[in-house]
Amino acid sequence: MAVHQARKRFGQNFLTDESVIESIVRAVSPERDDTVIEIGPGLSALTGPLHDRVAHLDVIEIDRDLAARLRKRFAPERLTVHEADALKVDFAAFGKDLRVVGNLPYNISSPLLFHLVAFADHVRDQHFMLQKEVIARMVARPGDGDYGRLSVMLQVRYAMQHLFDVPPEAFDPPPKVTSAVVRMVPLPATRAQAKSERAFSQVVARAFSQRRKMLRRVLADWQIDWAQLDIKETARAEELSVTDYIRLADYLVEQGVLA
C-alpha cells in the first residue's frame, strides 16, 4: 500500500510509538461489548488494538484515502467506517453508553469538544490525545493562569483528568508541541446545573472576554448586586468557580436580564 502523506489541512500527525499506544488502550480498557467510537483513526495506530478488544468498532475519518485504507484492512462486520467530518456527526445516532476515543487534530480540538458536549448524556467516557496546553486549560482550577472559558464550559459537564504527556517524537511527522491524554467522564444528572444553558454560556463568554478587568466593569450594564451573590465586587473572571458562574447566570435569569 502506498505511503500516505500527512495532510496539513486535516492537522494530521500520526501516532507511531507503541508504548504510548499501549498506554492509551490500557487507559480506555475497552470490554468486548462496549460501543467504542474512534475519531480520526488515521493510519490505524489505535484502531488495530481497539479492534482486537471489541466485537465491533466504529471509526470516523474525514480523509477519503485513509477511509479507503481502513475498509481494505478491516472486515465490515467488525469495523464500520463513517467517512465524515466529526464536527458534523450526530453522536446520538450511535446509541447510549458510548466510549469515544481519538488522537484529535489540534486545529479542531476545541470546536470538537464543544460539539461533543451536546451528546454527553449518551457518553460513558471520552479519552483524547490533545495538545498539552489545551488539556492544561481544560483541567485548570479557579485562580490558575490556564483557567478560562474552556475550563468552565467543560467542567460544568465533565469530570476530567490529565493522564499522561506524549512527546513530539511519538508522532510522524512530529508536531511542534507536546501532547497529552485526557479522560473525560460526563457528570451525572444530579450535577449542579444552570437554569438556562444559554444564559450560562453567555455569562461565561462575556466574563472572560476581558479577563484582566474586574467583573463589575465587564458586566456593568447587567446591574448585578454582587453582595447578594456573595461574590467580591473586585473579582476577576478567573477567580470564580463553576458554581459561582451557575449562581451568577441563575441570578440574571431570575432578574429577567437573560433568558
Automatic annotation (TrEMBL):
Top enzyme category: transferase
Cited InterPro entries: KsgA/Erm, rRNA_Ade_diMease-like_C, rRNA_Ade_Mease_Trfase_CS, rRNA_Ade_methylase_Trfase_N, rRNA_adenine_dimethylase, SAM-dependent_MTases_sf
Compartments where found: Cytoplasm
Entry annotated with the keyword Methyltransferase: yes
Catalytic activity: adenosine(1518)/adenosine(1519) in 16S rRNA + 4 S-adenosyl-L-methionine = N(6)-dimethyladenosine(1518)/N(6)-dimethyladenosine(1519) in 16S rRNA + 4 S-adenosyl-L-homocysteine + 4 H(+)
Residues the record lists as binding S-adenosyl-L-methionine: 13, 15, 40, 61, 85, 103
GO cellular component, one term: cytosol
Name the UniProt record assigns to this protein: Ribosomal RNA small subunit methyltransferase A
Lineage: Bacteria, Pseudomonadati, Pseudomonadota, Betaproteobacteria, Burkholderiales
